[in-house]
Design a protein that fits this description.
The chain has one domain. The chain starts with 5 loop residues before the first helix and ends with a helix. The chain has ten helices and no strands. It is 80% helix and 0% strand. The chain is mainly α.
Length: 266
């Protein structure tokens, strides 16, 4: 979908996700909870903030992939679990163990080294990590279920998204139903690929310590890394090698410490 602008892709991602989620609300008999969330101003404002945060995260990620910055996107999602650790300490008063402090310090050194080497701040990676970290933090304390919360988020974003898509279509600028059936299916297919992982993430965010959310999140950035280097052939400099090695060491320390801690405290 490289020929489709990133902003248009994100609009389809939002609208089709809502269309995908709404039947789930009905089938799982969560309609009353959904209506109550829409009536509660405080809940609505919280979900509006998380919707804007995750919407910005999606947009930046799609732009990065289509613009040849998949390695930076991969780095961002590697850093994300360590951002969760910091946010858990700052906002939820979770206590850091020595190994976690070391992991965060190593990740910080890696980012600083990359910045000094290139003379350019890795803003894509850090913005992706921080925005998704804050999304998890706010959803953890939001007084609403995972499915209902995600459906409300996509509803809030779908209203302006649908208006703009209709505007594009009326001016002959929209991509859907104009190019090919394959492209149409890809744009619609953004819905389950968006909603299902995010739904499981919010389920986990409400049940786990924020500092433990990242253990299985390493799979996604690893896939991005492999795609960037071996499929898309993005340049992979010695500075990037050093930074990724520091991040991987940090994640290995963090993961080993987490497994040891939970084995002792079962």
């Amino acid at each position: 979908m490289r020929a489709v602008p990133a902003f248009e892709i994100i609009l389809h991602r939002i609208v089709w996700s809502f269309i995908f989620l709404l039947p789930l609300i009905i089938m799982m008999r969560r309609w009353r909870e959904f209506i109550d969330a829409l009536k509660n101003i405080r809940t609505l404002l919280i979900l509006l903030s998380t919707a804007l945060i995750v919407g910005g995260n999606w947009l930046l990620y799609i732009w990065a992939v289509n613009s040849g910055y998949l390695l930076q996107a991969s780095l961002g999602y590697y850093i994300n679990p360590l951002v969760n650790v910091v946010l858990g300490v700052v906002f939820l008063k979770e206590r850091l163990r020595m190994a976690q402090i070391l992991a965060v310090a190593l990740a910080t050194v890696g980012v600083i080294y990359l910045t000094v080497y290139y003379g350019e701040f890795p803003w894509i990676a850090l913005t992706l990590a921080v925005t998704f970290g804050f999304y998890g933090l706010i959803r953890k304390v939001a007084p609403v279920g995972s499915l209902v919360g995600l459906t409300v988020e996509t509803l809030l974003l779908s209203i302006p998204a649908l208006v703009y898509l209709l505007y594009l279509d009326s001016h002959g600028l929209g991509s859907i139903f104009r190019v090919s059936l394959k492209l149409d299916l890809l744009l619609m297919g953004c819905a389950p690929l968006t909603a299902i992982p995010l739904l499981f993430f919010t389920l986990g965010a409400r049940r786990l310590y924020l500092s433990t959310l990242g253990l299985l999140q390493y799979i996604a950035p690893s896939c991005m890394f492999i795609l960037a280097v071996f499929l898309f052939r993005e340049p992979f400099s010695s500075a990037q090698v050093a930074t990724f090695i520091l991040i991987w060491i940090a994640l290995a320390i963090y993961s080993a410490d987490s497994m040891r801690y939970y084995r002792i405290n079962k």
